[in-house]
Amino acid sequence: MFYTLKWETDSVSFIDQRVLPLEEKYIKCSDYQQVAVAIKDMVVRGAPAIGIAAVFGVALGVVKSKKDTIQGLKEEFSHITSVMRATRPTAVNLFWAIKRIEDVFNISCLETNDVNKVKEKVLSVALAMYDEDANINKMIGVNGSELIEDGMNILTHCNAGALATVAYGTALSVMRAAKQQGKKIHVYADETRPFLQGARLTMWELMKDEIPCTLLSDNMSGYLMANNKIDIVIVGADRIAANGDSANKIGTYSVSVLANYHKVPMYFAAPLSTIDLKTPEGCDIPIEQRSLDEVRVINGKKICPEGANAVNPSFDVTPNSLITGIITERGIIYPPFNESIRSLF
Ligand code: MRU
What we know:
Blueprint: E1 5-8, E2 11-15, E3 26-29, H1 32-40, H2 47-63, H3 70-85, H4 92-111, H5 115-144, E4 153-156, H6 171-180, E5 186-190, H7 197-208, E6 213-216, H8 221-226, E7 232-235, E8 239-241, E9 246-249, H9 252-261, E10 266-269, E11 275-276, H10 293-296, E12 297-298, E13 301-302, E14 315-318, E15 325-328, E16 331-333, H11 337-342
Helix pairs in contact: 1-2, 2-3, 2-4, 2-5, 3-4, 4-5, 5-6
The structure holds 5-S-methyl-1-O-phosphono-5-thio-D-ribulose.
């Protein structure tokens, strides 16, 4: 069995998602700066996983702080959280998780003058958030599995699996629950250029769990839909705006347009922590732009002429009009999302 991330006595370890599936190796981060680099460099990735990674990074910084006064610890805390917030901009789970640990820290500082008590509190809440994430994902799976019928072919994009969370995943949790209920399913996984989360990570997870699956390159799902090979699309999300517009890995929007054209139901699976009520619409979601070499280079080899220009937006936004439903730990919601999203909180 593997784990995505784990708290150790004085460090946090991550499975290195940059080298899967060829190598299964773990990376130990012994300070919060190393955790921030691990998030930025995508050693750990996926919205819920980076939220918990950031909280573990904050906890590591607090636990290892040499400050012996509450005021000193407060100043250091503020620096640590700003480093964590600057890692990746799109997945709101990161900001949600940091805000939650920040509230715990601030209340704790009001309640005691004992620096060690504050450290203990921050660590205990970070560990509780880790367990909570696994439980929430399990519920998403149970709720979403009611959409899955025996014999269904499911398309997914990117990796919304255990590797993107503490455990189970979001979209993949639905598939895991369906399999557990004895339903025969088959999953198509988009390769997901340029980081290849689908080819490297989703296929690895599904094959480990013996869920029948097939890899396709990103330009093939239209062909499959036109030939009635896809019954449902289920993907994860990085940020869902208050009106239901949903950001997910680049390419999801194209899949949504195709699904809509071919009348294939299009579902997003995400915890409530991915819903950002402060962002009214999809156009307000910040889209991370990553290094152009992620597009120009594969496995260390340039695949285009020297000096070629490229673009690399890491996410795109699917408008609510193309979304059939959103699967959450509190149930599945349907349009109008402006109303159904609010009813969840
Ligand atoms: O750039 P990544 O790999 O962090 O992007 C991940 C995704 O887009 C996932 O689909 C999303 O975070 C949902 S994970 C349960």
